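[step 3/7] fold_predict: job queued, chain A
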Amino acid sequence: MQNIKPQRVLSAIEAVGPQVYRILREQIIQAELVPGARISEAEIARSLSISRQPVREAFIKLAEEGLVQVLPQRGTYVTRISTASVMDVRFVREAIEADIVRQVAGEHKAAIVAELREQIARQKQVPHDDRAAFLRLDELFHHTLATA
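[step 4/7] structure written:
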């Protein structure tokens, strides 16, 4: 069973449930919680100094997204990655982004092209062991491209 290490203190301003959900989702996406890992409602609640209810709610949302599997009387596990699903998502993303690139290129927006190039340059400077920084920059790149 893997320990949850909160990367930040929970905010007193925002509801606890959405914060727990975001922390767990981020840790799954960044492979801090690896596929197949068993995660415990009680341990997460204890590590965040909260009750189990917000963790239970986060598990439900994560299960709806397919990121965890809740097996009654057996435990909750980070969903294993399906190669077929990854290939399907990759195909769709490539098709959408190819169309977006054509549209952006057709508009000849020099400022956007310069910004995208700068973002790629920053991605290349990220150390290989800093996945979190690379993912943040990669998400920014794709967001910038889609917004353009």
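[step 5/7] annotate
The chain has two domains: 16-78, 83-147.
Residues 16-78 form a domain with the Arc Repressor Mutant, subunit A fold (CATH 1.10.10.10).
exit 0
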